[in-house]
Amino acid sequence: MARTKIFALKRPYPRQSWNKQAVYNLFRYRAPQATRGTFYQQKFRAKQETRRFHGEYLTERKWNSMFRHTLRGVVRMNPAQMAKGDGSDVVSGRGSGVDLLPRRLQGLEGYEGLDSTEKRNPPIPFVQMTFAPLERRLDTAVYRALFASSVRQARMMCLHGKVMVNGVKMPHAGYMLNPGDMFSIDPLTVMRAIGGRERAPFKQLSTQAKSDLQKAIEEAQSKTKSSTYLKASNKKVLAGNADAEVDTETFTAAGVKSTSSETTEGEASGENATAAAAEGEGSTAGGKKKFHLPSDWRTYLPKHPRWKIYDEWKPKRFMNLFAFVPRYLEVNHHICHAVYLRHPVARSGGAEVPNPFGNDIMQLAYNWYLRRR
Amino acid sequence: MVVRLRLARFGARNRPLYNIVVSQARTARNSKPMEIIGTYDPIPKPAPDGEGKPFKDIQLDITRAKYWLGVGAQPSDPVWRLLAMFGLIEPQWKVVRIPAQQEDKALYEKVQKVKLIADGASKTTSTTSTTTTS
Amino acid sequence: MPPRLRPSSLPSTSNVIPQSFSSSPLLPFLLPSYHIYTQIPTPFSSRNFSTSKPAYRRIRFEKTPGTRNGFVNWMRKFAPRFNVPSPVDNIPVYLTQEPVNLPLLKGDSLPSVKKREAGVSRKQAKRNRVNWELAKEKATRSPFPGNPSFKVHPVISTEFREQIYLRMKADRSVRRISAELNCELERVAAVIRLKEIENKWIEQKRPLCTEMQKRVHAMMPVTEYTPFPLHESITDLRIHSATNNQLFLAVPESMPFTRQDAGEALGLLPADVRMPHSELIQVEKMKLAGVEVEEMVRIETEREAREAEEAKAKKERREKRLGAAKVVETERFRFRLKPANAAAVGFRYGVPAEDRKRGVNKIPTRVV
Predict the structure, then answer these.
(1) How far is C286 from chain A (nearest CA, A)?
(2) Is C284 in the same domain as C300?
(3) pTM passes above 0.90
(4) Are C191 and C217 in a shared domain?
(5) How many CB pairs under 8 A join A and C?
(6) Which of A55, A225, C198, C205 is the most buried (most CB within 10 A)?
C-alpha cells in the first residue's frame, strides 16, 4: 500500500470508507471541471480523481492488468410485447424502425401517448462500469456486503484469514469472486467492524453482588446439575444463546438474580462504585471480607460484554450514509454470509457499481485506460 | 528387468502428490516412465458437506491398468492397495478390524456371562456359559 | 531577483473593494488579477520580512473549510444531521438528503416568489416551488451527491426470504419461485442456500445477529413481502458483445426481418431463447390466444415436469460421461475413485514447477 494518509483535509478526495473525515470530504467534494486543459490533461485528471476512490491501494500496474474495455450491460425484455410480435415491426419502414416523435412535438396535445424512445428508456450508463472489475475482488465485495467499514478494513480481514470463500479460508484480498461464490466472516468480527463503540466492560462489582456471585458459582459448581452448564467447556454455549434462557435459569436458582434489580444494574453500568475493583481471587473489598472469585468471573455473569453485542449492537457512526447493498450481491446479516450472484452490469436505470463520479469524469477516465492516449 | 506399476512423487515439501506410473523397476523414482496411468492425492480433503469422513482422490485409467497387469507388470504394495479398490486385483491383505462399538459390545457380553457364573444363575445359562468359556 | 511578495504584504481587501461587496463569495473573481498584484504595499506592512501571524495563532483562528477547524465545525453543526442510526419510518438518509439544487415543480402552476400572496413569507414561497416528492425520492435513492445516475436498489426483507424458503420447501422449482416473486433466478437460489445455513446455525444453537440484521435493514430501502411483490426485473437479457458492432446485411424488403433472423445473422440464438424466463413468452402467447386458466396451469405444470426430467437425464448423462466417482470407504477415509484417460492424466515430466516463481500469480482462481 503506497499511501497511508488518505483522509487529508486540505484537498478533499472521496474514499471508500465510513471514516468521519472521509464523510466530510465526500460531502464537500466537487468534481474537477471536465473542460479545463488539453484532452490529455482532462483524461489524466479524471483518472487521478477516480482512482483515488476505486482501489486506491492498488498500484496502477495491477489495475491496468485488471481493466477490460468490454463493459457488461443488460436490456430488460418484455415478454408480453415479445409474445405479440416477432420483432419485425422494429425494422419495418425505412430500416430504422417506426419513426420517433420529433422533439418539437413532444408533450403537445394529441401526442401524449407517443413518447420518444429515449425518454422511455434512458441511455445505459456504460462508462459507470469502468471500475467494475474491482467489484470482483474479495475485499471490495466484503465492503459492499456491509461486512466492513472500509475497503482497507475488508482487505485487512482477508489478510488476517477471517474471510472464508465457499467455506474455505481465503487469505488473498485479490481473489476474484466467481458467480455463485459464497463468502462469510465470523459474526463477532463483523459486528465489531461495522458497529459503534461498545460499552466498556464493567470492572467493579458491589460487595453484595460479589458475595452473591461467589455463592452462585460455588453452588453451581457443587451441584451436579447446574455445573454442567457452568463447566468451562459449556460456558460458550451458555453465554452464546441469543435468548440466554439457560443462564438466566441457573442464576435465578443460584441467587444472583434474586437480589434486587438495582444490584444487577449496578453491575452492568459500573456506577455502583462503593466497592474496590474485584481483581481475581483474594482481593479485599468493602472492608475485611475476602472473596475468592475465579479469574474468569466475568463470563459467569448473565450479560457478559462478549455476548452482549448480539443483543445490543449499534451501527457505526455515519453507517446510514453507506447502507446499501448492490444488486449483484445477496447478503444475509443473520449469519454474516453473502453470495456473489453475478458480475455487475449496467442497465437503462443506472449502473450497479457504486460510484460518486458523474458520467463526464468517468468517460474521460475510461478513455485514459483505453490506452489510445 | 521387471516392469512395475508404482508411484512417482510430485508436489512440494509436506504436500505430496503421486503419479501412478508404469516403469522399469531399476529406474529412478521420478525418471520418465513408460506410461502415466493415474494420480493419487494422499492428503485428505474435508468432506464437502462438513460431515462424515474426509476424502482422498484417486484417478486411474482402468483399461491401461488392466492391460499392464495382463502383460505381467508387478504393482508395488501401495499401488496394489489402490488397484484393489478399483477391483482389478485381489487385495494383498484383508485387515478385519472390529469397530470400537462392536468391540465394546463383545466385551459387555463377555462380562455378562462371567457375571452370570459368579451369581450362580440357573443351570441352563451356566451350561451355555461353560461351553463358551471352554 | 525582486523580493518575493508575501501574502501578508498584499493589500487588505477592505481598502480596495467597496464595503458592500466585501461579503460576496465571488470576491476573488470580481477583482481583476492585475489589481491585486500591482498594488504597492500599504504602509503598515512596509517591512521586508513576514508580518503574518505565527503559525500556532494562524492555525487556531483560521476558519477555512479545508482545515481541521472547518472539519470540527462541520462535525458539530452538520454531522448530527447525517448520522441517523435509526431513521424515522425506515426512510434511508443519504448524503443527498439536502441537495443544493432542489427540484422545482413543473408546469404553469409554479407559484412565483415575487407575486406571492399576502402573509406568505419569501422563504415559504420559495419552499412552495420545490417538488418535495421528487426531492425525497432522489434523496432516498442516490447516496452520492455527485452522481445522480447511481441508484440504490432495495434489498429483500427477512420475511420475503422466509417466503422464498417456504415455497422451496413446498417443492416449487427455483424458476417458478423467481417468476412468482419477481426475483432474479440467482437471487432465489442464493437466498435458499443462505437460509439453509441459517437453519443449521439455529439447530446448532449458534447465536444469530438478529439485532444487527434488523438495524441494518432499517437504514436501507427494503422490499417488503406482498402477495405479488415487484422487486426487480427478471427478464434482463445480457448484451452480447457480438451485438456491439454494426453488421451490414442485405434483406429483401418484402420479407419480414424477425428476431430469429437477427439472431442467425449475428450467429446467436434469438433473444426469445437467450432471455432468462423465456417460458413467460409462451404464457403471454396463451393469454393472448384466450386459453383458459386451468388449461394454462396444466400446460405449465407439464412443462415443468418435462424440464425437471430433462435436467435429471442431462445430469445422469454427464455423470456417466465423466464417470461418477465410485467411493470406497475405509476406516478413516473415503476414497473417491475416478476413471481417467492415460493420455491426459498426471503431472507432466520436463515441465518446471512455477509455484514458487516470482511474478507468477498464485492466487487461486476458484474455490470449489
Answers:
(1) 9
(2) yes
(3) no
(4) yes
(5) 263
(6) A55
